[in-house]
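Example record

One chain of 389 residues, shown exactly as stored in the release files.
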Amino acid sequence: MKLNADGDGNRTVILKTTLLLAAITINALEFFLPRIPFLPWLKPGLANCVTLLWIIRYGGKDALLFSLLRIWLIGFYFGISLVTLSLALSGGVLATCAMGIVWHTFGRRGLIGTVGTAIVGAIFHNMGQIIAVFFLLAYNVYLFYQVPIMIIASLVFGGLVGVLTPLLSQLAEQAFNESDRAIISLPENRMASRTYTTISVAMLLLSISLVFIHSRMVLLVLALLITLSVQVVHSVSLRALFSPVRRFWLLFLFVAFFHLFPARGTRVPWIPFLTYEGIQSTSVQWLRLWSWLQISLLLTYFKFHTVIFLTLSFFFRRHKFTLYAGLLAVEDFPEVFDLIRKRATMEFRSMLRHPITTSRDFLCRAFYDVADYVVRRHCEAIGEERGSE
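Predicted structure tokens for this chain:
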């Protein structure tokens, strides 16, 4: 499928695809960084450089679509669950809206720069995530004792994002010498069958309904049925069975910490500081969390991403270039991620010793790698088409 656009249209799609792939790749790499046990969602958030640049170049509404695509594509490749999706949406969408309002109101008038805007975005991002964690996992006011830590982290990481954003803007202007002669070949967004779509929507509704179920027996039965369904569609896969614990053990540990120790009630005689009520509350939340993570495997299997793209195209009809960039990113991400991961592995030790300098250099090189891949891919497509003629 060809995009009917002039040179500027081709350039816009290539630039948006590169920016989206860069943001998704950086976001994905942060999953592999060591996490603080009871602050598992705390991370640098360097992908927000792209979000802020998107706001400056294309406006707040288009940046909101970009954020939704980035969040969904990360979930699509690394596991979708109500927890991870809610944390990403609550933080990412709130931060995008906040930065969009601040930049539109003050940034364009020169009253605030990228550093100040990025710090505002980081604060809203962290506050949104804490609120989501409270309602989904903790239900414990002790969680809000983390607010001072999150504000300090927002100042540090938000400041870093604000410093790197102008650099990213310069890279975006320099990286596309060959993009004007590229023709965009888009993969078709083939809609899943009606059966798959119905099952996917039902699974999503089940994920939401788990929030309101507090019976341990009901949750246990649902968790067993969902796990059995995953094993059926994956032909009895031990990897699918143990994937939630292997990848999200810190999340299980966090849930236990906030439900076991502060709980009041009848003390367990042989275990200090624990109560029967705390153990019951933890088991309920663990069952809920396990079910959410298992449902993510079903959503991926039944191609729920096609429903997402169809929904986004309905609400963002005038933002076709960004939607096209999302379709291209779905296809290109595995190769781009492998490319950037190798570079990140080589520079990991340097990043620990010199975080600011190494982050700047890594951002430059990673962006050029992604841009080179995208442009070369489409230029090669042109050569193949001309050769066949």
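Notes: Residues 13 and 321 are 5 Å apart (CA to CA).
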